[in-house]
Every structure is written in C-alpha cells, then in structure tokens.
Write a structure and sequence with these properties.
Elements: E1 6-17, E2 20-31, E3 35-39, H1 46-54, E4 61-66, E5 69-70, H2 76-81, E6 84-87, H3 99-106, H4 118-124, H5 126-129, H6 141-153, E7 159-163, H7 171-186, E8 191-196, H8 199-205, E9 208-212, E10 218-223, H9 224-229, H10 232-238
Parallel strand pairs: 3-8, 3-9, 6-7, 7-8
Antiparallel strand pairs: 1-2, 1-4, 4-5, 9-10
Helix pairs in contact: 3-6, 6-7
The structure holds adenosine-5'-triphosphate (ATP) and magnesium ion.
Residues 46-47, 89, 163 line the site of magnesium ion.
Length: 240
C-alpha cells in the first residue's frame, strides 16, 4: 500500500496542569487525508491531547510535528495559521455576533473552486443560511455545532480537530452532524482528528482509532474493521 505523508506526528508527549501529570507519554500520527479518532473514558485526557496539539496547553516534553515542523512550543494562533482548525466541545460560538459574523471572522482564503466561502457555506448549510442575521448564541445545540464545523471549514484548513461533536445532541442531531462530517469535511479531503465517547459515531466517520487509558497513554490502535469484528476491544477499554 502507498505510504502517505504523516501530516500530524506526536511522539512521547507529557502534558501537565500544574503538578497534575495528565498526558504520560502519548504517541500517535495521522496520515494526510486520513480520519482518525481518539476514544477513551471520561477524564482520561482526550481534550488535553487536543489542547496540546493546538498549543493551548503545550506539552512539557515530547514532540508534535505538523507537516514535518515541530510545533510543540508554538502559540495557538500560529498553529491555526498553518491550517489546523479546532472545534472545541463547548463550540465557542461568539455571543453577540451573528451567524454571518461568526463565519466571516474565521474565513481564510482557500485554493481553487472548492475553497469554502461564506456563499458556499450558505449553499451547503441551509439551516445556517436561514439564520445569517441571528445572534449565534441563540441557535439550538445542533445548529451551534453546525456553525462551529462551518467555521472550521471556512478557514480552509488542512486538518480539522473536533472534540466530541456529538456531545449533548439527540440521536437525530448526532446523525445529522455525522452526515455533515462525512459529506463536507471528509469529502473535501481534509485530514480529521475526532475525539468521541460516542464510539458508534467514531466508527462511522473514522478509519483508525486510538484508545486511551487513564494514564493518558494510547493502549491500543485499531482499524474500524477490527473494532466492528471484535466489540470486546471497545467494551474492555470504554465501558465504565
Ligand atoms: N484546567 C485544568 N486544570 C487542572 N486539571 C484539569 C484541567 N482540565 C482538565 N483537567 C484534568 O485533567 C484530566 C484530563 O481531562 P480532559 O478534559 O483532558 O479529559 P477528557 O478525556 O477530555 O474527559 P471528558 O470525557 O470529560 O471530556 C482530568 O482528570 C481533568 O480533571
Ligand atoms: Mg474532553
């Protein structure tokens, strides 16, 4: 099989909150245009892993390479500038700004006709198009998640990192967000890293999965096929 470029490569990172040693030697990688998930119980350090990548809680040791460049000591704005978009679990929609303003603040030029623009987002997300002048904070949970994902897309990133996109959503809305991820993010050829506790969603969108344990380490890497064929793997690592 053709070997693709590792667009994200994390080696042996250790991340702390004060003296609390949360990530203890985590290594993982994502190849270009791959969709990968991180699965793990409550509090194991999934969000901290994403915060480490984004420079929000940088690792104290170890390396994070993005496209071959060591970004592990970079500021968050510099990491987003090289094309890494972060969709946090809290979505961080700017209150007091309209849907249109939320989107336009995040917009960055992309390449060619497939670049995401405000107009293209409106064409593809009618729910948002109907609400462009509405305060972003007044949207429902599902609409806010859609706005948060659209805001990532409109920055025309190379990598999108999503923290529990299905959190707090009804099964119907989880299905809708799953479709959005499959239809727009993955079809656009964007590399994706998705953290989920909803492993059913993760199995639908990602092809490779990293399972984390309580020490903030990766204990298992498996393909979707392996996890579907042997549900025991997920049961033993994710059930409470
Ligand atoms: N700002 C912080 N200061 C101190 N400790 C923190 C902070 N944020 C998280 N932690 C602790 O770090 C550990 C990992 O938290 P993290 O949020 O990364 O886990 P998670 O896997 O994303 O959990 P969840 O499933 O709840 O989202 C937890 O024990 C948590 O209490
Ligand atoms: Mg979390």
């Amino acid at each position: 099989m053709e070997k693709r470029n590792k667009i994200l490569n994390i080696e042996q990172i250790h991340t702390y909150y004060g003296v609390s040693h949360v990530i203890q030697g985590l290594s993982m990688y994502i190849e270009e245009q791959e969709t990968v998930s991180i699965l793990g119980r409550n509090g194991v350090g999934k969000t901290t892993t994403l915060r480490s990548i984004m420079g929000l809680t940088p690792p104290q040791s170890g390396t994070i390479n993005i496209d071959g460049i060591d970004t592990s000591r970079w500021q968050p704005h510099k990491i987003s500038k090289i094309g890494v978009a972060y969709v946090p679990a809290e979505r961080h929609i700017f209150p007091g700004l309209t849907v249109e303003e939320n989107l336009k603040l995040a917009a960055r030029p992309g390449n060619g006709k497939d670049a995401w623009t405000f107009e293209r987002v409106c064409d593809h997300f009618p729910v948002l198009a109907e609400r462009t002048n509405q305060d972003g904070a007044t949207l429902s949970g599902g609409e806010q998640q859609m706005l948060a994902i659209s805001r990532a897309l409109i920055s025309n990133p190379r990598i999108i990192i999503m923290d529990e996109p299905s959190q707090g959503l009804s099964p119907l809305l989880v299905q809708m967000i799953t479709d959005v991820v499959l239809k727009f993010c993955i079809k656009s050829g964007i590399t994706m890293l998705i953290v989920e506790q909803n492993y059913r969603m993760a199995l639908k969108v990602a092809t490779r999965h990293y399972l984390m344990d309580t020490k903030g380490e990766i204990v298992k890497v498996a393909s979707t096929r392996e996890l579907v064929d042997d549900p025991e793997i997920i049961q033993s690592h994710l059930s409470v």
